[in-house]
Structure formats: structure tokens, C-alpha cells
Amino acid sequence: MTLSAPIAEPGAGIGYRARPSLRSRIAGGRAGPVLVVLVAVLVLWYAGAVLLNWPTESARLARGNPEVSPAEILTATLSAQRPVLPAPHQIAVEIWNTTVKVSPTAPRSLVYHAGVTLGPTLLGFALGTLLGVALAVGIIHSRTLDKSLMPWVITSQTIPILAIAPMVIVVLNSVGISGLVPKAIISTYLSFFPVTVGMVKGLRSPDAMHLDLMRTYNASGRQTLAKLRAPASLPFLFASMKVAVAAALVGAIVGELPTGAQAGLGARLLAGSYYGQTIQIWSALVAASAMAGVLVWLVGLAETTARRRAGARA
Amino acid sequence: MSAVASPTLRGGPAAPLSILASAAVALGGAALALALLGGGRGSVDLFFWAVVLAFWLGAWRLTSGIAALSPKGAAARRMADLAVPVLFGLTCIVLWELVVRGLDVPIVLLPSPSQIAARIAASTGILWADFRQTYLKAVLAGWALGCGLGFLAGVAVDRSPFLKRGLLPVGNLVSALPVIGIAPIMVMWFGFDWPSKAAVVVVMTFFPMLVNTVAGLEAAGAMERDLMRTYAASPSQTLLKLKLPAAMPFLFNALKINSTLALIGAIVAEFFGTPIVGMGFRISAEIGRLNTDMVWAEIAVAALAGSLSYGLLALLERAATFWHPSTRAGRA
After folding, report:
1. Chain B residues close to A12, C-beta within 8 Å
2. Are the CB atoms for A127 and A195 separated by under 8 Å?
3. In terms of CA atoms, which chain A residue is nearest residue B210?
4. Per-residue pLDDT tens for B100-148?
5. Candidates A37, A157, A204; nearest CB to B4
6. In terms of CATH architecture, what is B121-331?
7. What is residue B24's three-state secondary structure?
8. pLDDT-based confidence at B5, cuts 50/70/90?
9. Distance between terminal CA atoms of chain B?
10. Measured between beta carbons, which residues in chain A are less than 8 angstroms from residue B84?
11. A76-95 residues touching B, CB cutoff 8 A
């Protein structure tokens, strides 16, 4: 799932007259519009929570008291025990209760479950990146590998690799390997394809002119790789690493599903769906999303640092 | 030296001969090794592994020999480009078969390709029912709905620069999230049957389509847009005659990404509860009984479905974006 489409520069303001009013300054930045969209999502969410929970809650309240007022139902829809759609503040309270209020090692703690999922994610991501880069270097240097392996790497992107996850877990379990390693293998598998494809593109990105210059210097293949191809491929590497780290997290979460794992964000999702604990599902989802966001942000941070040290401008 | 920079090897008179020789070695090695396997357990000895090694080396020489050729005609070149990956894939499958049967790997760990093929042939009925449930119902409905909604939302957002600036970062963020996690919620909302899987697919495919539509509608050049303005074209005319055609590469990119995402979403959503049919259900049920050959059969069907739909979309893209430089370069 390489998101290789370039995202057009926001606000390419062709044909718009410059008029620096307060409104245009708010609308011109990025924080303002994003904030408005987020607030709209929140409002829609509350409306959805009221609408979706209304039938069940009004039926529940009407059983005890036939003349229940709409205001009572309204408050009940936003504080139901097992809502169809929990209100955002219920999820926030649940997250607060399961992170700050319990010790991080308790089995109720979301921090503990996130940690269980984070381990295989990071291990798989590291292995996948190394494997992807190694494979890309091989593909660059061998015409046979390029012509024979590359079509398969691309084809492999079109097949639902995640379907293999349960088999990897169960088969490795049956030979006595369990815990962190099988999940990390799935994460590796998911994260190495984007890195391979991105790095092949990146290592080939130097100009023909620069490659010719290396040839006039009589540089060896290894020197060309270290001094020209590797630096040129940095932006590609980090772009594909961002995709890869998100894929690794998905792999680790899905890897927890088939064996009925006791711990981890995927296990929380599964347990929540078994017992109808919607708030628990949503809080696990929010935790997973936050983790994905932080991981992608960290890769972005590493990118800025690496590019600055490599001498890129700004 | 790199494949790009170095001058390609010319296939001199010696090259076809060596290719023929390695083809003979590979074919003979494969046939001999399979014949040895037929002789029962006792026949797997050092000689067998030597034959396997000979097959591997022959196949490798053959593949690299064809890869090094650079035929003159366009048709011949396309044939060579097709032959190399196909040969590589065949080599992998034959090696898989030989190693699994030679080492007597238990079927639970890794079934051999012939066992998987036999299982596919023996259970076409089940596979078809699963395919219909998961692919024809959940994936197609969800994919069409998700892409359609994403496209419409993208066109609507395109009219407002404010919304565009607000929605694009959010859409990009959502693309990185583990959206697959909404599967248990959708199963609760829409029940066990295929609509819940289609709903997961809709959510998964919506945002890539939205982001790509918005990016694609911006892809038309400033010059062309100015030209439309000098023609006094209305916004809808500009959209139909300029922006949509220019957005086609982006739209097809999203359609292709989404075809893979949709299959993954539907299969994983079935891990959370299904009626007793469907590819994801079959995978999780059969792996519980350690019937790995059935799991591999389902994976083969899923892989085939995924690649074929991707290929079909790629063909459609070629037909729709024949004018685009990247397509023209591919044809040259």
C-alpha cells in the first residue's frame, strides 16, 4: 500500500488575490482549517452517539418509567453502559481510567497492552527495514534479481498478505515459538515490501550525470552506493519507512487475533467484541491510532535530523 | 556495476547455446529429482540433493542468461521481460516442492505446492462459496461504495480551498491509522453477514480515494486553468473537460491501492465473526484444525483475486490515461 501519489501543495493560490484580512489569515494557514474539521468531526460524533443510542436507551428507560422525558433519554444516550456508539468523553474517561489511574503493569492498564503490541511492532519494523534495504541494494546491483524478483515484489503488494498472519502464528506456536517473535515476523513481512519498493526507486534516483561523474572518478560500485546512491535515497527511505511503521503496527495487532492472545491492543479489541464492551474497543482503537501517529511522527523527526546532518537545506 | 549504468550484455552467438544448456540442466534436474522422490523414502540421499542443487544452478543460469539478453524487437523484449519472472516463480515453486518432500516436512508446517493444488482441485465448491461471500459481496460492494463516496467527497471539497486545507492533513493521518480495528464495531452494528465487512471496506477505502481525488483535481496546470477561464468556462465545465481527465492517474492510483486494501479489510473483518462461510472465516477455522493445505488454498485464491483485479484496473488505466507521459513511456 504505497501511497506514492504526490499530495498537492495545499493552497496553491493561483487566481486568488492577496487580501490579508483576519479571516484569510485564519483560513490561509493549516491549523485553522484542520481545527474546524476536527471540531466538525466531534460535533457529528456527538450527534451520531445521540441518534444511535436513542432507540436502545429510550426502550431501557421506558421499561422502568413510562413517562420518561426526552431530556433524560438525551443524557442517558451520552452515558450508556454499553452504547452502540460511545460519546467521545466516555472514551476519554475510559482511557484516563486505564492509563493514569492504574499501575502500568496491571492487566487492566492500556499502557501495558500498548507496550505488548509495541515490542513486536518495533522489532518487526527494524527487521523489515533492514531486509528491505538489503533486498533493494541487491536488486540495484544484479540485473537478474531486478528482472526476476522485482515483478514479484510488486505483485506481492496486490495480494492480501495479512491473510497469512493467522497461519504464521499458529504454525510457529505448534513448533513452540510463541510470544513476541511470531508477531514480529508478520510485522517484518508487512513492512519490508514498501521499503524495498521505495529504496529501489530511491537508489535509482541520482541523475545520469552524477552517475557518469562517479564513473569518471573510477568509483567502485560500493563507493557509488555509499557516496551517491545512499544519500540520494534518504527521502525515499523515510517516506517508505513511514508507510512501513504503520503497516508493522497493523501486523502486530492482527497477529494477536487468531490465538486469542491475553495481552495487547489486538487482544483488547477481540475481548471487547466478545463481551460487547464498546467503550473498551474504542479506547483500544484510540490508543492504537495514537501509537501509529507517534511512530510516524518519530520517523518524521528522524528524517529531519538525518537530512539536516546530510546537509539538506531546511 | 549497476544495471542502469552498465552497457547491457549483448547476446552473442555463445549466449543462446549456454541458455539452452542451462535449460536442459534445469529441466533434467527437476525431472530426475521428482523421479527420485517417487522412489520412496530411502531414495532421498546425497545424490538427490546434488540433483536439486544442479537444478537450482541450472535454473539460475537460465534466468540470468535470459535477463542479460537484449533482443532487438519490441515483442521479443516483452517476451523476455515476461519470461524472467515467470521462470523465477517456477524455480521457487519447484524448489519448494523438492525441499518440502525431500526433507519430509510435516504438512502442518508447510504443505508442498502439489498438496495445495490437490486441495484446490478437491474443494472448488467450498472455495467458490467463500469467494462469492467475501469477494463478490463484501469486497466489491464496499470497494465501489467507498471509492464512490470518497470521489464525491473529493469533488465537493475541491470547490472550497478552506475545506481542502482542513481535510487533507486529516485524510493523510487517517491513512496511517490501523483502520482495520473498526472491524469489531462494524460487526456489532451491521451483524455477522457481509454488510459489516462491506462497511469496514467502505471506511478503509474512503480516505485514500478522498486524498487522491483532491490531489488529482489540483494536478491540472495553471496555464490550462487560465485557458479555461479565458473561454469563460463554468466550474462544472472546467471540472468535466479539464480537471477530471487530469486527475485520472491519481484516481486510478487510489482505485488500485483500494483494491488491495478492500480484500485485506474484508478478510480480517471476518476474523471477528461471520456466518460459516467466507475466506477469512475459512482461514481462521481451518488453521484451528491445523489444515494448512486448505489455508494455503484460500490464500492462493485471495492472491489470484487480488492480482487479477489489480491487473484489470491497470489495463483500464492504460486505456483511460493513454495520453499521460508515464503510460506513453511504457509503450515506447
Report:
1. 218
2. no
3. A7
4. 888 878 887 888 888 889 989 998 888 998 898 888 888 999 999 999 9
5. A204
6. Orthogonal Bundle (1.10)
7. helix
8. very low
9. 26
10. 144, 147-148, 151
11. 84
Query: What's residue A34's pLDDT?
Result: 82
Flag whether pLDDT at B282 surpasses 60: yes
Amino acid at B97: E
Residue with cell 465501489: B144
pLDDT at A257: 76
Residue B12, φ and ψ in degrees, nearest 5: -75, -170
CB contacts of B189 in chain A (<8 Å) are 84
Instruction: Give the A:B interface size as CB pairs under 8 Å.
Output: 232
Q: Which residues of chain A have pLDDT under 50?
A: 1-13, 15-16, 314
Do A144 and B68 lie within an 8 Å CB cutoff? yes
pTM (predicted TM-score): 0.78
Contacts of residue B229 in chain A, CB cutoff 8 Å? Answer: 15
ipTM of the complex: 0.74
C-alpha cell at B1: 556495476
Angle, CA of A264, A269 and A273, to the nearest 5°? 145
B205, B150 contact by CB (below 8 A):
yes
DSSP A162: G
The answer to whether residues B180 and A250 touch, using CB atoms and an 8 Å cutoff, is yes
Domain borders along chain B are 14-104, 121-331
Contacts of B183 in chain A (CB under 8 A): 269
When pLDDT is averaged across residues B309-314 and rounded to a whole number, the result is 88
CA distance A50 to A133: 50
Quick: pLDDT tens for A156-173.
Answer: 777 777 777 778 887 887
Whether A169 and A258 have beta carbons less than 8 Å apart is answered as yes
Kindly state the cell numbers that stand for B289. Answer: 484444525
A166/B271 touch (CB, cutoff 8 Å), yes or no: yes
Distance CA A235, CA A306 (A): 10
How does the average pLDDT of chain B come out, rounded? 82
B93, B113 Cβ separation under 8 angstroms: yes
- Tell me what pLDDT residue B24 has: 79
A241 touches chain B (CB under 8 A): no
The one-letter amino acid at A28: G
Cα of A96 to nearest chain B Cα, Å = 20
Instruction: Give the whole-angstrom CA distance, residue B269 versus residue A60.
Output: 30
CA distances from A7 to B173, B293, B304 (A): 13, 43, 31
Nearest CA in chain B to A290: B177
Residue B191, helix vs strand vs coil: coil
Euclidean distance between CA atoms A144 and A231, whole angstroms:
25
